[in-house]
Amino acid sequence: xxxxxxxxxxxxxxxxxxxxxxxxxxxxxxxxxxxxxxxxxxxxxxxxxxxxxxxxxxxxxxxxxxxxxxxxxxxxxxxxxxxxxxxxxxxxxxxxxxxxxxxxxxxxxxxxxxxxxxxxxxxxxxxxxxxxxxxxxxxxxxxxxxxxxxxxxxxxxxxxxxxxxxxxxxxxxxxxxxxxxxxxxxxxxxxxxxxxxxxxxxxxxxxxxxxxxxxxxxxxxxxxxxxxxxxxxxxxxxxxxxxxxxxxxxxxxxxxxxxxxxxxxxxxxxxxxxxxxxxxxxxxxxxxxxxxxxxxxxxxxxxxxxxxxxxxxxxxxxxxxxxxxxxxxxxxxxxxxxxxxxxxxxxxxxxxxxxxxxxxx
Length: 361
What we know:
Layout: E1 5-12, E2 20-28, E3 34-41, E4 51-58, E5 69-72, E6 77-80, E7 85-86, E8 93-101, H1 106-110, E9 116-123, E10 134-135, H2 137-140, E11 145-150, E12 156-157, E13 163-171, E14 181-188, E15 196-197, E16 206-213, E17 219-225, E18 232-237, E19 248-250, E20 261-264, E21 276-281, E22 287-294, E23 303-319, E24 325-332, E25 340-346, H3 348-351
Antiparallel strand pairs: 1-25, 2-3, 3-4, 4-5, 6-8, 7-8, 8-9, 9-10, 11-13, 12-13, 13-14, 14-15, 16-17, 17-18, 18-19, 20-21, 21-22, 22-23, 23-24, 24-25
């Protein structure tokens, strides 16, 4: 086989005191440490209940990992939707996330009968310890919004230094699941001290989204199409996420109405190519986790390689310091996509069947 691929089941449902692990997120610190976040769902696979935010760290590009650490927990509370974003100027890892009452699930939040709030924590020591979380709902959530979600996945730092976090929300109209969902971003121009809400793209019903900066400094927003059965919804921003173009549709990116992930693959060499990576279950069902590659800033996706043929759902992508491509994804072999959160690392040669290799020194 051309190229290399390695896999490790990082979180195994039913182990270490948790019924189910879900909602993976990856970050790479300025020191090159990989941080793998997820939700630890104590009592069931459901999206509400007692849910903690968990973390494993790797100092060797994902070959070995630390024990599981609890980033935040609160009795009787769902702590979910981790979306780390790294400030490379200060070294701080910011972790926005959301809270709701364990007995106040999404249906009650949509009906205006239970709160959904937005929170932040941070690490200044490479992810070893985390600050006591503080609430940022007033900055992140507008009046009239009911449901809210940060990420899941990771945020980015634009070349301008702006921190950008993909998010979504529900606008209360009928106060039901028929109300419109919208994707948007949070952004910070003061290294995470304060946050502002960008205007959502118009033209569809989208929620969980991922963002990447393009070679010309635009933002490319790739959104879950909540209504189906089309592919992913796409929007562009020329002002750093403060506003977006109307949504268009990329029918190449087939999905089963599910989260997906993006990352830019960048080298410093002057003769290299622009590359963006995308991962999702490329199927009408939650299976066939597939990684794609674009050479034209997300307009076309000529490369696709199957990573996991069986049950699969949420994922996040990162690039390790040695330029290995990393994918943290939900998968299963028997009954569901939520048996494992698996970490895979592979090289560009494996992804492209040998057609694309890194420039030699």
